[in-house]
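User: Here's a structure from my thesis project, written as structure tokens. My advisor, Dr. K., wants to see whether a designed sequence matches the one we expressed. Can you design one independently, without my sequence as a hint?
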């Protein structure tokens, strides 16, 4: 069931969202890149009547909205909404029309990402271009029902106790699929995040691999097809181009960084990307659906990406890469950035070491010698231990200085699977301490850190991608019991938390105040963790 608030009526491939207004009417907006829905409104005040009696919404399902009196709304195409029924009328702000079989409400916009043209996109009962919809209302409803039945039939199998949330997650992934620059792209959310974000796509692919590995591979291809000549993979592919560099800082960082940049945009152009997890995602797809041709296609681009981090993102030349901009970390509002716009938390080089090993896996699958990649992975881990391990934790450095903020990024070296056993055990002990462990672990800033805020983005809430990576790392480092417990607590939090959010308050287990709803990677990673109970292969 859709609530038409957090879960609007929309469809795969469509930019249109039908939502409930506070006065009980419906309104329709179009999802565009980094644009509020209130700024893309197509229609407001929509109500359905039989005579003078208003017909309220009876239920909203993935394939249709049912009104009292036998009237229904469905998608006849990505940009065509229709009302079907007899002896009723629809009224909206600025117009009304009889529903006599099939009333087309909204017709196609000019193209991907095009702004709506207000009332001119409304018609008086015929589909755009004239003529009748083939088969009329019953055919529209039947096609929508079949489309959604087929989608849910492909959902990975999960335990019955998790099925309701899993179905919501699978629906979220479908409706977040939209065309961007002519290619089907899974966006993080239709609430503003209407673009193909770099690491989001890797997490999305992890769920898609179970039902549509070709579509999972397409998410990787889109990014690699926009790779720059020097190897950088873009931060975002969106309707108007790609984001590969910026002079901006996140709004929330400007005041805190005033002492560094005067509260103004950066004066130099900085390359921006996202954490290097491409080869990790490629290999996860390959484990479920082996495809040597795809591995051969992406191998050299993956090598160029790996080389970019050490050639272009290691400004002090010490062999350990840094994030040159908050955007590149994916953790835009973390208190790490309170100390400056360039940082080296422990996650980045952990990802790069893991990438070396995944490049080795890909090389071996292609009949090449993986030895060089394995050696580079171990050498990078050894360098991290030598230079960033204090004996109790891996430190975060900003501007060449250690900072005291505690985040779960300190545990990401577990992902390498190459730490000395004593160091891995110490990290797990710290993870399970009251600083990070609770009924709903893991906060993105330690509970006992003075900067902990359970509702502020990356300053305390639980994020599923962090937990998923930690579960992966715990397994790779030989701590399966803690991985299992973290997985179970994470699944329980999402099951009981009310929805699929961008992030959760770890104290309440509910949506954090400013978290986006209908979030792609939360849906994808919940599904991947949930399907393991049904015989799925943990990897």
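Assistant: Designed independently from the structure alone:
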């Amino acid at each position: 069931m859709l609530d038409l608030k957090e879960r609007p009526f929309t469809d795969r491939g469509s930019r249109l969202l039908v939502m409930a207004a506070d006065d009980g009417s419906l309104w329709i907006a179009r999802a565009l890149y980094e644009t509020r829905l209130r700024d893309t409104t197509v229609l407001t005040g929509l109500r359905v009547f039989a005579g003078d009696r208003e017909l309220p919404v009876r239920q909203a399902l993935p394939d249709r909205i049912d009104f009292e009196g036998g009237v229904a709304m469905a998608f006849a195409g990505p940009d065509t909404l229709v009302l079907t029924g007899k002896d009723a009328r629809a009224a909206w702000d600025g117009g009304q029309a009889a529903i006599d079989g099939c009333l087309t409400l909204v017709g196609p916009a000019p193209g991907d990402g095009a702004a709506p043209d207000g009332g001119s996109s409304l018609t008086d009962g015929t589909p755009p271009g004239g003529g009748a919809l083939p088969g009329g209302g019953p055919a529209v409803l039947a096609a929508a029902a079949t489309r959604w039945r087929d989608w849910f039939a492909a959902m990975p199998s999960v335990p019955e106790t998790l099925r309701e949330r899993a179905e919501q997650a699978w629906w979220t992934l479908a409706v977040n699929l939209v065309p961007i620059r002519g290619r089907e792209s899974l966006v993080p959310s239709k609430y503003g995040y209407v673009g193909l974000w770099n690491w989001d796509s890797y997490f999305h692919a992890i769920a898609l691999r179970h039902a549509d590995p070709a579509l999972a591979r397409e998410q990787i291809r889109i990014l690699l097809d926009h790779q720059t000549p020097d190897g950088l993979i873009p931060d975002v592919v969106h309707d108007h181009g790609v984001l590969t560099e910026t002079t901006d800082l996140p709004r929330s960082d400007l005041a805190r960084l005033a002492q560094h940049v005067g509260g103004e945009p950066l004066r130099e152009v900085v390359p921006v990307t996202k954490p290097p997890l491409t080869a990790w995602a490629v290999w996860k797809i390959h484990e479920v659906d082996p495809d040597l041709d795809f591995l051969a296609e992406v191998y050299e681009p993956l090598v160029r990406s790996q080389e970019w981090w050490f050639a272009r993102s290691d400004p002090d030349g010490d062999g350990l890469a840094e994030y040159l901009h908050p955007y590149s970390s994916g953790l835009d509002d973390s208190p790490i950035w309170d100390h400056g716009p360039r940082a080296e938390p422990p996650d980045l080089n952990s990802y790069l070491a893991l990438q070396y090993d995944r490049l080795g896996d890909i090389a071996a699958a292609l009949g090449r010698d993986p030895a060089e990649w394995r050696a580079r992975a171990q050498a990078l881990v050894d360098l991290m231990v030598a230079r960033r391990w204090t004996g109790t934790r891996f430190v975060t450095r900003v501007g060449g200085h250690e900072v005291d903020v505690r985040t779960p990024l300190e545990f990401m070296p577990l992902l390498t699977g190459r730490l000395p056993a004593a160091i891995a055990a110490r990290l797990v002990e710290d993870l399970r301490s009251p600083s990070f462990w609770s009924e709903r672990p893991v906060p993105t800033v330690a509970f006992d850190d003075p900067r902990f805020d359970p509702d502020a983005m990356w300053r305390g809430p639980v994020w599923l991608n962090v937990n998923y990576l930690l579960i992966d790392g715990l397994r790779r480092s030989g701590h399966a019991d803690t991985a299992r417990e973290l997985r179970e607590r994470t699944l329980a939090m999402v099951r009981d938390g009310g929805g699929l959010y961008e992030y959760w308050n770890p104290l309440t287990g509910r949506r954090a105040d400013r978290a986006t709803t209908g979030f792609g990677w939360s849906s994808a990673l919940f599904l991947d963790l949930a399907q393991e109970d049904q015989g799925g292969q943990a990897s």
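When you compare it with your expressed construct, this may help: The CA atoms of residues 84 and 99 lie 7 Å apart.
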